[in-house]
Amino acid sequence: MTTASEDAPAAKLSAPDHEVTVIGAGPGGIAAGVKLKRAGVTDFVILERADEVGGSWHENHYPGLEVDIPSLAYQYSFARNPHWSRLFAAGAEVKRYHIEVARRFGLYPHIRFGTTVVSEEWDEDRHCWRLHLADGGVTTARFVISAVGAFISPKQDPGIAGLAEYTGKIQRPSDWDDGYDLTGKRVAVIGTGASSVQITPSIAGAVGSLAVYQRTPVWCVPKPNPRIPRAVQLAFQVPGVQASLHGAALVVADAALRTMSNAPMAVVRPTMRAVDAAAIRGYRGLLRLMVRDPGIRAGLTPNYGPIAKRPTANTGYLLAFNRPNVDLVTTPIERFTAHGIRTTDGVEREFDMVVLATGYHVFSDPETYTPGMVVGRDGLDLGKYYTEQGLQAYESVSLPGLPNRWTLVGPYSWSGSGWHAFVEMTADHAVRAISEARRRGATFVAIRQQVHDAYHARIYRHGEAMRYYLAELNAHVPTYYRNSQGDSTYIRPTGFFSARRAHHRFPFSDYEFDRLTA
Predict the structure, then answer these.
(1) Ordered DSSP codes for 257-290
(2) How far apart are CA 149 and CA 167, in angstroms?
(3) Gene3D superfamilies, alphabetically (predicted)?
(4) Which CATH class is domain 18-154+362-514?
(5) pLDDT digit string (tens) for 44-64?
């Protein structure tokens, strides 16, 4: 490989199957597809393991599913929807939105459904990626955009012994059997995360009995969800109205992150301790208002700060524990039995149905990246690299050893916005780099090692306050905001607007552009 001038004619290459391959047709994949089309890139394919677009919003359709931030903040800037029916849209409505966007922008002809990528392998001789598929096939691409999202795959094994012995109905939020009639059934929900908080109040009135098995109490505040009046929907159609409202919310989130990341630790430590203590006292007051039984109130009270785990919002969750058929179980589970669940105190309860609301493999965990999944230049194995070196990537999207490849949800990527806002800007980064490569006739694009290292050092330094909060002040609580290496690689500590500027304006000199020569 040699560096070629911008004006030299490109060598005749054995062309890959596609110029660009996008992995995943969820919110990130849709954003990438739209950005590629707008940039004039037509030779691209989107590989999607499911049979429809939408990612988690297609896979998940459990009772009570809805967004946990206002709908107007949960949409693309290039496809704002003035017709949301409620302040917090239901899952089916969000799924329809993604389908409509994909149709409007002509993405369906580019999508191959039922196609699972099991590994990615860099071909140095051809400057392309070989993507190995679950059906044994192989497809090649000059450039790859990984848009698999934040929640890569649901945890099939909850880590509880005896699951295979249980003979009742198993339900998972990501694979809910809508045909199962749970009326009058004895039901257990294991877990108290975002899906459990929505499922629990949605089924409590229909089932005969409901036991919620809790390892860690969750922060859950009331969430009024009114219908959006027609007059407001009409106002949302006025250009700039939705953008202004969304922008105001982003300013608040951005200011909070920047203040935390820039404040001296001598101020951060006592402030965080005081804020957490005050928040816990306030939450105890909320529980006194909403939950009658003092024993259940005590069990529902967190002993950690409000953002150490993903906070939730649902008016019905806490109120559900006032129902006579709903019980909170805080004794640890020992194992499944043939007919139910036994806890460590020896008590066995029988259940007709168990809901495993036990979470996902998340992008910020090194264990998510198994050896051999992504192998780049000079044999760089992403799974081994992240295990040995920790999660890192230039602007959260690219690594020097993975040329021609960008990840839309990578280390230190979430910047306090809705998912759509930040996958849009990471997609902009990838498409901007690809467009410049096309302009130069380059077949090879990689972030320079020294640029990557400088960026990672800076972002790691800014993350000191978040690491203190998650790995010291709240080290006792399990959370996917802190990974197994004790790092807070989920969150970009420098804020939304800084991230957006960087993705839109990064110097092309940060990258190395080369091409194959005859």
Answers:
(1) HHHHHHS-HHHHHHHHHHHHHHHHHHHHHHHHHH
(2) 33
(3) FAD/NAD(P)-binding domain (3.50.50.60)
(4) alpha beta
(5) 999 999 999 999 999 999 999
Question: By the 8 A CB rule, do 291 and 318 touch?
Answer: yes
Domains 18-154+362-514 and 163-225+251-360 equal at CATH topology level: yes
Predicted model pTM: 0.94
Residue ranges per structural domain of the chain = 18-154+362-514, 163-225+251-360
Q: Decide the pairing of beta strands 348-350 and 340-343.
A: antiparallel
β-pair type (138-146, 348-350): unpaired
The number of helices, as runs of H, and strands, as runs of E, in the chain is 14, 22
Q: What count of Cα atoms within 13 Å lies in the side-chain half-sphere of residue 245? A: 16
Is the pLDDT score of 11 beyond 80? no
User: Could you tell me if 40 and 15 are in contact, meaning their C-beta atoms sit under 8 angstroms apart?
Assistant: no
Instruction: Tell me how crowded residue 346 is: count the other CB atoms within 10 A of its CB.
Output: 8
Q: Is residue 440 helix, strand or coil?
A: helix
Structure tokens, 385: 């690299």
CATH of domain 163-225+251-360: 3.50.50.60
| Strands in 276-435 per DSSP E | 312-313, 326-329, 333-336, 340-343, 348-350, 353-356, 360-362, 374-375, 405-407
Question: Which range (22-26, 157-161, 204-208, 314-318) has the least confidence?
Answer: 157-161
